[in-house]
Amino acid sequence: MAKREIESLNKNFVTDIRGIIEQSRRNAVRSVDFCRVQMYWNIGRRIQVEEQKGKKRADYGSFLLKNLSKELEPEYGSGFSVRQLEMCRQFFRLYPIANTVCSQLNWSQYKLLIAIDDADKREYYQLESVNNAWTKRELERQIHSQLYERLLMSSDKEKVLAVARKQRIPETPQEVIKDPMVLEFLGLERNPEYYERDLETAIINHLQRFLLELGNGFAFIARQRRILLEDDAARRQRYDLG
């Protein structure tokens, strides 16, 4: 076996092992995150059960959480403040069935979902977070930019939810294209309209900075580069021969 072939096999082998390690690390982080979600869900359930015992007292729920926080915070930290315990209770009330809690989402994402009053809107963002592997930051951005409301402007609620649930394939561009688009990440000022070249320049600038930030192995070749298709190349060859 040639030396170059051995080196190639060894490189592939090392790459595979690295992939196994990285995947295991990601799985471990997701496992820890979901254990935390389950912990808060179980805390919420236990609070709900205990609160029901004293439901004849109007102030029992408030007393229960304050007293619980007073006992837990010194031992376990700020993750068990009254506000956090209230969120645990709300979490259980919104997701009373354990298997409806998604293992792909972490507690930071669920806190954003809990704050949404509209059940359909909450379901949409939950489904899209899972379908598109949104991070907490991306989910927060989509909520703040009112993605759900913008999609409803060009389609009805049932169609939007059906696409998120993967019950149907979008039939028109309007079902998946946001209207209007929010491009605050480009650093453009809020204007009623933009020329195409303004958007093109801002988007390319953004992509260029991103590619350069990635470091070695990535390059920004040109802002506009002509691409010859097979038919164009064949036609040019015929002209050259003629």
List the helices and strands and how they pair.
Elements: H1 3-53, H2 60-76, H3 82-94, H4 107-114, H5 119-131, H6 136-144, H7 147-152, H8 157-164, H9 196-214, H10 230-241
List keywords for this structure.
mainly alpha, single chain, 0% strand, 242 residues, 10 helices
Put the structure in a nutshell.
The protein has 10 helices and no strands. The protein is mainly alpha-helical and 242 residues long. It is extended and about 80 Å long.
Measure the end-to-end span: 50 Å
Quick one: overall form?
Answer: extended
How many separate structural domains?
3
Helix-strand sequence: HHHHHHHHHH
Q: How many strands, what sense, and barrel or not for the largest sheet?
A: none
Question: What is the strand content?
Answer: under 5%
Q: Which runs of at least 5 residues are low in confidence (pLDDT < 50)?
A: 238-242
Q: If you compute it from the alpha carbons, what radius of gyration comes out, rounded to the nearest whole angstrom?
A: 26 Å
Helix content estimate:
55-70%
Q: Total number of helical segments? A: 10
Q: Give the number of DSSP strands.
A: 0
Structural class: mainly alpha
Structure description:
The chain has ten helices and no strands. 13% of the residues are buried. It starts with a helix and ends with a helix. It is extended and about 80 Å long. The protein folds into three domains: 1-101, no CATH class; 116-177, no CATH class; 183-242, no CATH class. The chain is mostly helical. Helix 5 (119-131) runs parallel beside helix 8 (157-164). 64% of the residues lie in helices and 0% in strands. Residues 238-242 have low confidence and may be disordered.
